[in-house]
Amino acid sequence: MSKLKKTAADMVKAARNRIEEIETEDLIGMVDDPSVVIVDIRDIRERQRTGAIPGSIHAPRGMIEFWVDPDSPYYKDVFGQEDKKYVFHCASGWRSALTVATLQDMGFAAAHLKEGFSTWAEKGGPVETIEKK
Predict the structure, then answer these.
(1) Which residues of 14-38 are buried (b: 16+ CB within 10 A; e: fewer)?
(2) Are 81 and 57 in contact (CB under 8 A)?
């Protein structure tokens, strides 16, 4: 395999340099804020294994661009709400950084949880159990 022009770590670093990052403690304070929409992009198995932020929207990483695009047949109304702050998260903050950078390129305003869900519970964040279906 030839050497990559950019590594995944390079892409995450570049994304983080141009997007809004929210600290865990700050997002914990926003959990009950009706103007904030928390979007969990982790795989369903991750959510079932470790739980989820109460009230968060599950949007698998592979569908985000299609779910936020009103011209897509996969568009979800939850992403068309005016005057909402969207905060995306994954497990460690890598996938969500790339996601938010891509959404920003599309013209969709969003932020991400800097450390991801990995430190959420230990910093006092509420967690709900996700049942297997």
Answers:
(1) ebbeebebbebeebeeeeeeeebbb
(2) no
> Which candidate, 109, 78, 112, places its Cα nearest to that of 96?
112
- List, run by run, the mean pLDDT of 10-residue segments along the chain (133 residues): 91 97 97 97 95 96 96 97 96 97 97 96 94 80
- Are the C-beta atoms of 128 and 47 separated by less than 8 Å? no
Is residue 46 classed exposed, middle or buried when 0-12, 13-18 and 19+ CB atoms within 10 A define those classes? middle
Q: Is the Cβ–Cβ distance between 94 and 12 less than 8 Å? A: yes
| The total number of residues written for the chain in this structure | 133
